[in-house]
Amino acid sequence: MTAPAGSRLAVGLRAIVTHVVGEADTAAAMGSGDVPVLGTPRLLALAEAATVAAVAPRLDDGQTSVGTAVHLEHRRASPLGAELAVEAELTEIDGPRLVFMFIARGARAGEDGEGEVIGAGTVERVVVDRGRFLTRLAGPPLA
């Protein structure tokens, strides 16, 4: 595996992804339930998008990161039209392995003045050489 771009990646890198819940984001549309609220798979996709946004500009040419592990708590339903902000922060670097914490908040303000927590968790990604990664995929199919 390729080591990450040493001094260019640092604990504390962050990114925020915002999104408005639409029909295609619902549990019913995604097959993860039958109600018209944000589906857990979509929440995960938003969290991963925030992790990618946090580090992609700092990776060397030809490098990318791929997801390897997730822990997600989906704590509160978000109806159609709900505005979300998902923030990810790089909390650990171990060679090519990157660990992020994320928190998803709704637009409605809570008692602390921040949006209510929709979900939270961790995402683990590994930095890889994009070309070698794709070449391995083109190999013979698994039996």
Give the secondary structure arrangement, pairings included.
Layout: E1 14-20, H1 27-30, H2 40-55, E2 63-74, E3 83-94, E4 97-109, E5 115-129, H3 130-137
Antiparallel strand pairs: 1-3, 2-5, 3-4, 4-5
CATH topology: Thiol Ester Dehydrase, Chain A
Q: Strand percentage, roughly? A: 35-45%
Cα-based radius of gyration, to the nearest Å: 17 Å
The span between the termini is 24 Å
What is the CATH-assigned architecture?
Roll
Would you report the number of β strands?
Answer: 5
Q: What is the CATH class?
A: Alpha Beta
Shape: globular
Task: State the domain count.
Answer: 1
Mean pLDDT: 90
Report the CATH superfamily: Hotdog Thioesterase
Note the main sheet.
Answer: 5 strands, antiparallel
Order of helices and strands: EHHEEEEH
Low-confidence spans: none
Strand order in the largest sheet: 1-3-4-5-2
Number of continuous helical runs? 3
Helicity, in percent?
Answer: 10-25%
Counting helices, strands and paired strands, the structural category is alpha+beta
Structure report:
The chain has a single domain (6-137), classed as Roll (Thiol Ester Dehydrase, Chain A). It has a five-stranded antiparallel sheet with strand order 1-3-4-5-2. The chain is an alpha+beta fold and 143 residues long. The two termini are 24 Å apart. Helix content is 20%, strand content 41%. The radius of gyration is 17 Å and the shape is globular. It is built from three helices and five strands; from the N terminus they run E-H-H-E-E-E-E-H.
